[in-house]
Amino acid sequence: MSLNQSTPNSGQPLLKVEGVSKYFMRDKSRFAAVEDVSVTLNAGETLGIVGESGSGKSTLSRCIIRLYDPEKGRIFFDGVDFTALKPKALRAKRRNIQMIFQDPLASLNPMMTVHSAIEDPMLIHNIGSARERTKRVHELLELVGLDVGAANAFPFEFSGGQQQRIGIARALALNPKLLICDEAVSALDVSIQAQILRLLQDLQKQLGLAYLFISHNLAVVEHMSDQIAVMFNGKVVEYDTVEEIFRAPKQEYTRNLIDSVPKIPRSDTLRFKRPRLNKDAAEAK
Amino acid sequence: MNAPLLEVTDLKVEFKRPGGVVHAVNGVNFTLEAGQSLGIVGESGSGKSVTMLSLLGLIGRTGRVVGGSAVFNGVDLVKMSPRELQDVRGRDIAVIFQDPMTSLNPIMKIGAQITESMRMRKIYSQAEANERAIELLDRVGIPQPAKRLNDYPYQFSGGMRQRVMIALALALKPKLLIADEPTTALDVTVQAQVLDLLESLQEETGMAMIIITHDLGVATNYCDKLAVMYAGEIVEMATVDRLVDHTSHPYALGLLNSTMEIGHGKTAIQPIPGNPPSALKKHTACPFAPRCSFKTSVCQERKPELATIEPNHLVACFHADEVVKAAQQGDAAAAEVMLNVAQPIHA
Fold first, then answer.
1. Are residues B119 and B259 located together in one domain of the fold?
2. Is A169 inside a domain boundary?
3. What CATH number has the domain bearing residue B15?
4. Residue B155 near chain A (CB below 8 Å)
5. How many CB contacts within 8 angstroms connect chain A with chain B?
6. Chain B residues lying within 8 Å of A257, measured CB to CB
7. Where are the beta strands (DSSP E) in A93-221?
8. Single pTM value for the model
9. Could you report the per-residue pLDDT of B215-272, keeping only the tens digit for each?
């Protein structure tokens, strides 16, 4: 939070998406993968995007980094209109947004050592000497909880959770302000999921990162987010603070997403909850 | 009393690898009654899938059952010849896997895949088999089943493919359905639909079910009994109520804390630190000790046995009493968090 105030652009959001639409052709007709989406994200905070497969979550994130050019709307990042940038200016500016993906192994080059994978973004942007870059690679490995010795190994030698850590280290190499996590833990075991989510929470606190956190699992999104946008058929159907979304979901669809998450049937929790409900009921009588 | 449907005793499975012998399953014991559902829970590499697949001869050439027995319906599966097992698979015991796209044949119409087992065993004529396939597809919730018999797997969505897999598995009315991570590849909304379907099918047919999963949220909602596996062994086994309210193994507690639930807000997640041990060495001490916050010197000297602490509750931990206490305090705190709006993580 304190990092928020120290950013020069405090007061204006880090990311502002205004009325963005993206269309694709399907069966010879145009359909909206993303339609009229407006969301904002402050520095150091997390915006959760939740919805089922095909709801447009990933398309939206690809519009934000302009892997897709949206047909309508504007995207402001750090005060700059991203949608108006020319390719060269875009490349320079885009280093402030990095992504991590669902399948950590598929997103790492199998022929590159961990060291070169993490160093690559710095090479592309001509940063530092070889020695400085190596130092930075080691710093990053430590930051994500990996051994410095991991640098010389290849991605396949690691478990899924460790591969995702490598992906995170690479994403952090250029000191981005925004990290887009697209189903970043969906392919991982629950126990590994918890480790990676905790790492992301700690990194946010430590580095003041903002996250755009995309997932189909509302419980995961809830643990990570300040604000949540619920997407359905390309549209944002509900957009609010975490507290409000869970206290009083306005859409049947959101309710359904909440109910889909399995709840552990703890009798203690129920015992804790029930007296209050019963008490209210008793008073009502 | 009737004998249980499946009784697994001291099952040991090994794999030969270039780097040495992998001890995947190290003496597993459990029983399953007819109509009961058992959840086998653990992380990747804990031996949960291998335990079940080894019983059906589905662990490839490098894997071998090196000890123990698995008596199903009065016969030991471990001693069966491949031919005898072939007859058990599909008819008495059916399996559905995590990824329906890779477990269905991509170049075969789904009608032909569902009727294959029926035709192979000559139980039904082609016409009867088709009738039955339509009936099954209808039952698992596929719209216009008669029309869809002629479709290929790629024409179905992930959730629908898993429904097709379920129809295929149920074709010969098995007594036991093994579901190996049946919903891990699916969205939570579709996951709930598929699990609800499995539950109602189980009630309808009276078959027993074993759900293999890494997700305690899934296991606690759809099973009667749970076995938590770590490093090739069962470390805690109990009815769902017992396991949730009297969690006695630190690993089971860690898994519970790692499970994402609704109602916590932006709170700090408490994962289990560290990584599971290598399966290349045999354990002489508690395999969980290096990651355990309850460990004392005894944990590093001896291996705790799986012992009964209550009827229907077994645990392999020297400090089970302390774990229960910590778990219950944690639960009370969790309940408090769920009631009030959660503490923000960076307050």
1. no
2. yes
3. 3.40.50.300
4. no
5. 158
6. 188-189
7. 97-100, 178-182, 210-215
8. 0.87
9. 999 999 999 999 999 999 999 999 999 999 999 999 999 999 999 988 888 888 999 9
